[in-house]
Amino acid sequence: MLHEIAEATRDFLGTLDEGLRAAAVRPATDDDLRRRWAYTPGSRPGVRYGDLDRGQRKAVHRLLASVLSPHAYAQVTAVMALEDVLDDREGGHRDRHQGDYWAVLLGEPGDEPYGWRVEGHHLSVSVVVAEGRVSATPFFLGANPARTSYRGRTVSQPLRLEEELARELLDRMGRTARGLAVVADTPPPDLRTGNSPRVGDVEPAGVAVGQLDRGSRELLVGLVRYYLDRLTGDLADEEFDALDLDRLHFAWEGSARRGEGHYYRVQGPELLIEYDNTANDANHAHSVWRRRSGDFGEDLLAAHRAAVGHG
Prior knowledge:
By secondary structure, the chain is of the alpha+beta class. Helix content is 38%, strand content 23%. It is built from eleven helices and 15 strands. The strands form two sheets. Strands 1, 2, 3, 4, 5, 6, 7, 10, 11, 12, 13, 14 and 15 form a 13-stranded mixed beta sheet that branches. β12 (249-254) and β13 form a beta hairpin. α1 (2-14) packs antiparallel against α4 (54-65) and α6 (160-172) packs antiparallel against α8 (214-228). 41% of the residues are buried.
């Protein structure tokens, strides 16, 4: 896996001329840039996807595909394409375009640590490679419109399972557990952690995994696994094996009726998953997977710096 990521990164670099390379590559030591992320519209550091030629754009996609599972890669491309759908719905007054995504590299392969980010509206994938390991959180995906329909039937819904798996869990758990899981009648307007560089002290809320029956516990673990499976198999397995599944909590806020605003989060000692669908008449979804001590590769970089310091 490390080889595939390094190769895709080198291939992308190889497509860039001197000017684009200067814009794309920043120092691996730029910790401020590494931690500065967003999922709102607007320009980013790096090179703009829409300004690249065909070969360079394909190299960006190979970069993403080097860490993403097939279904997550399909979700990412759908999220990018939705920018033109949203632009049409808004009458074009915000001049959105699926080219408005940026790729930036922090360092280069061969000089670990190194990393990269592909980011724009409703997409942020941050990768850090250090000490022979890979970090890929925060991992944000959003969709607006979250659902496009024809006569009541869904045509497009990029984050469908992010919603459906959580609803299945809420529906499956008994009345007592559901009473614990639903902690508020009104959902927050957005993810509680937003684009903060650190998760911080978000207290676990809702129902604990130990308060669920066996079937519901399996559904909760399956929901967590689905988020982690945004990454390729080996990377997802490593993340999953590091979790303390006996300390998970699940909380739901807002309405359980379809088409009405809702939010949920799953927490463990090192895990935070958030999902909301409240804006635009509950047709604008956000989702993120984060690691408390490992976002932006903080844990890997700390281990690297300790190793170097003791070298």
